[in-house]
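BACKBONE GEOMETRY TOKENS
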Amino acid sequence: MENVVINGLQQGLLYGFMALGVLLTFQILGFPDLTVEGTFPLGAAVTASAVVKGTDPFMAVLLGAAAGGLAGAATGLMHTRLKINNILAGILTTSAIYTVMLRTMGRPNTPLLGQDNFFSQVLGWLGLYENRLSLLELQIATISILLILVLAARLLLGWFLKTDLGLTIRATGNNEKMIRALGVNTDNTKLLTLIIANFLVGLSGALVCQIQGFADVGMGIGVLVAAIASVIVGEMLFGGKNLGMLLTGVILGSVIYRALLALGLRLNLPAEDFKMVTAVLVLLALTLPNFKINGISKIGILAPLRRGLTRNPGVNKQ
């Protein structure tokens, strides 16, 4: 069980950045952004290539995140300036990203064996060295770094979405025609949201690459569904009251989702079944709110669950 908790926390926080990005597009803006499946491995590929070429790991992670932001800009420009359907724009960008990754790495994958990584660098700044830490101490230190980073991202995003510009983005997702009638250029708000969201997704891919020690062009397959599952689980269980709880809930949803996968591994569930488990989990999360669950609202911790299951999304209402 200790491994389930540690793996759930570490993987959940790593993918928490991606869940925040998908929340921005999928839930707040109402934009089905398929670019995510390309942005995630792109962040990893750029980071791995930069590290291999001698770039500082911290800067390499920033480059990976920036590459994600550029991919989001490409999708946004195709949709807003060239008037291409949002889904098709995401597919076109993802297709182009595949070539970009192969050109960047020069091959389908890049190992980082023997290379310093972002986490060892941060630990070095704190006077800690990996070879002097036990495995458990190293895992706790890595989780602590990730927790600080993801909380910083959550606070910054929460602050931004309460500014005038952030409120405009939320209003665009809530009623685009109305906000456009008020003189707001909704194309620009969509473009900015896609850049920020994919920056977060690229950051997630860059950090995952640093943890697992390699980048691969196929590591983005299925990540969008997993991110949506994290968003829905987090919103159902924790995000019912306001924007702050929703942002925090999405991160917790990512941790819960990854802990469930780690528990499945612990119970020797075949790895080939995980895609089916993910699909069933998302299907349940999407359909359960349509059914009235009697009785559970009267019991402590289950009350928020029932509120989450029986309400309509209120992301933009605060």
Summary: The two ends are 38 Å apart (CA to CA). Residues 2-29 form the longest helix (28 residues).
